[in-house]
Amino acid sequence: MGEIHQFLYFNMLYPLKRWSSLYSIDHFLPGVSNEVEMKNSKRVVTELTRDRKKVLIELQKVKAELKARDGDVKVAVEAKDKAVPDLQHLVGQIKGAKVAAVLEFRASEAFEDLNTRYFLSGFEAFRKQVAECFPDLDFSVF
User: Does residue 65 sit within a domain?
Assistant: First the structure.
């Protein structure tokens, strides 16, 4: 019985084992493997196409929003361009009014009174300081 068993093993089973280790199941069923790969590829392509469409829709929304903002920016720039000359004119008027107010105040009697009062108070402070530093000097004539 041992010889028959060896004969069967070496002549029939051994070549089958060796052959099965050399070739995978994909070798015998290439259509099944390719079908699975095709289905996976189609699924991936479908998902990517769906994602691409979503991104394109989002891009269109962003473009529309940018156009609207661009319009807002143009309106704001035009308003600024109109406001700048008006502002410059008003600043010029304010500068002119400031100069006129200073000249008017300097020509007024109130300015002369203030100048005299501050000069006299400053002179009195000077006399006190000199009297402290130089007690021998007489400032009574002033």
Answer: yes
Other Cβ atoms within 10 Å of 41 Cβ, number: 11
Answer whether 131's CB lies under 8 Å from 137's CB: yes
Write down the number of H helices and E strands in the chain. 5, 0
CA separation for the pair 76, 112 (Å, rounded): 50
Q: Which residue type does 117 have?
A: R
pLDDT at 123 over 80: yes
| Whether residue 88 is found in the same domain as residue 117 | no
Do the domain assignments include residue 21? no
Determine, yes or no, domain membership for 136. Answer: yes
User: Residues 134, 135, 138, 142: is their CA dihedral positive or negative?
Assistant: positive
pTM higher than 0.90, yes or no?
no
Q: What is the C-alpha separation between 70 and 18, in angstroms, rounded?
A: 74
**Residue 2 included in any domain:** no
Contact, 33 vs 26, CB < 8 A? yes
Do 89 and 113 belong to one domain?
A: no
Q: Does the pLDDT value for residue 12 go beyond 60?
A: no
CA 89 – CA 71 distance, rounded (Å): 28
